[in-house]
Design a protein that fits this description.
Blueprint (H helix, E strand, L loop, with lengths): L11 E5 L24 H12 L17 E3 L10 E4 L6 E5 L3 E7 L5 E6 L1 H6 L1 H9 L6 E5 L9 E3 H8 L9 E3 L5 E4 L1 H11 L4 E4 L14 H4 L5 E7 L1
Parallel strand pairs: 2-3, 7-11
Antiparallel strand pairs: 1-12, 3-6, 4-12, 5-6, 5-7, 8-10, 9-10
């Protein structure tokens, strides 16, 4: 497990899983928590039961669709959304990732938490901004933590991805570096997230810097392996 290194209040807990410690066989070895990647359902159930030992209740799993939709955790069974929030103690907000950026949120008072799945489509579409809005607290009071995602040396994208960000926020040009071939860029998803969060007033952003693509012993990576497992990032109030 990775425990977020952020100055969260004492009643906030969070974690991100790594790929080790489970029962799934290759190519999902071993703590795959995704039930949509053709792994053995019994193995996924065992892995989720192991995660459950660290949590106050079963996570409010989402049907992640690379959107900017945010829901209140637990109000529906597996809603199509890419972020959730909660003000209820013990209610676990969670997202699954394997290169996309997981972002956990809380406020300084410890009254609300949230989790967001930010692939480039969701990030460009405003999933982080929508999550901040759903938390309904002053953005300056929000603390964010970025879990492991594909790093800037491995995240190659085309002109279409770059333009999707620049059309809304020209400052995001700083997150793209030319990658030799025309129309190819290396994107820094952590910088993109920081810029988008700062635009809505969230400046206390922690974490970032781990690379799912290069740290193959620690993390699943869809871009690296194609068929692979998923890690979970979760946050809750005690």
């Amino acid at each position: 497990m990775i425990i977020p290194d952020w100055p969260a209040p004492s009643r906030v807990r969070g974690l991100m899983t790594v790929r080790t410690g489970g029962v799934s066989h290759a190519p999902w070895a071993s703590l795959n928590l995704g039930d949509h990647v053709n792994d053995d359902p019994a193995d996924v159930a065992t892995n989720r039961a192991r995660l459950r030992q660290w949590l106050p209740e079963e996570p409010a799993w989402l049907d992640q669709v690379h959107s900017a939709r945010v829901v209140e955790a637990g109000n529906a069974s597996r809603p199509a959304a890419d972020a959730c929030f909660s003000r209820t103690p013990g209610r676990v907000c969670a997202v699954l990732t394997a290169d996309c950026l997981p972002v956990l949120f809380c406020d300084r008072a410890g009254s609300v938490v949230a989790a967001a799945h930010a692939g480039w489509r969701g990030l460009a579409g405003g999933v982080l901004e929508a999550t901040v809005a759903a938390m309904a607290v002053p953005p300056g009071d929000i603390l964010a933590w970025m879990g492991a995602a594909i790093g800037p040396a491995a995240f190659e994208v085309g002109d279409d991805v770059r333009e999707a960000f620049l059309v809304r926020h020209p400052a995001t040009a700083a997150a793209f570096v030319p990658q030799g071939a025309p129309g190819k860029w290396l994107a820094d998803i952590y910088t993109l997230a920081r810029i988008r969060l700062a635009h809505v007033g969230v400046t206390a952003v922690h974490g970032g810097g781990r690379c799912t693509f290069s740290e193959s012993d620690t993390f699943f990576s869809y871009r690296r392996d194609g068929v692979t497992g998923r890690m979970a990032s979760a946050v809750w109030l005690t």
